What does this fold into?
Amino acid sequence: MNGIIVIDKPINMTSHDVVSQVRKTLKTKKVGHLGTLDPLASGVLVVCVGDATKLAQFIENVEKTYLATICIGKTTSTLDSESDFTEIKKVEKIDENTILSVLDSFLGKSLQYPPIFSAIKVNGRKLYDLARKGEEIQIEPREIEIKSIKMVSPITYEDDSCYFQFLVTASKGTYIRSLCRDIANKLGYPGYMKALRRISSGCYNIENAATLEEVKNNNFTMYSMLSSLSDFPKLEDPEFIEKAKNGMKISPKAVFDIFKQYPSKIVIHQGEKLIAIYQYQESCYQAARVWN
It folds into this structure.
């Protein structure tokens, strides 16, 4: 059994919990996931089964789209609803155009400071372990890119704070908790992420997703490994297929004659069967991974 299952992860489950349940249901140990979702987040979790687990290094850098609920006027140490409030500031009425302008200011590339409570490692130790022990931490900002961001709900005022929903598409490594903090700070208030739902990950979206109950009842779609490589240049020529099966090098000229350029990676397949992924290195195309 080889392929990809798109799971609609429920809240209050870790991504590892989902993988464990899929392993148990499908009776296979070779199961992994792409793009961790925190326990309080729901939505698209891409689960790789069998030989698809070897795809991770090629497809883990995809863009992701989220529906986030931001609370303005309060914040927590974890920047989500998992911990107590650490700062509160009464919110006066905020002009919607001001919010729209602030959201637009995040478009493009920027440096983002990850949350203190995160799985990022510093000197081999996870930040959340250091934070829980009260150790002083020097966090380095990381480059992220916001491809699109828009407000998708009215502002709701409640208990001297307010909240609204926004839809955001961002690069790998973007922390939506940090984004909520930064949006609120630009508006002059503390803030945190009240709720989060992942709408899509790469070419897979929530409409493709199955619940764990549906997986248990064998009511789900197993997507081919090839489906995850929709953005890669592809070759389905008997000559290239034969070379790929034997792990042979492919000349750049042969690739250029087809694509009129030198892609960094190419996919070789036979119908829906993925044969190999080649990458350009040392002046030729070499097999990065072959599936027999």
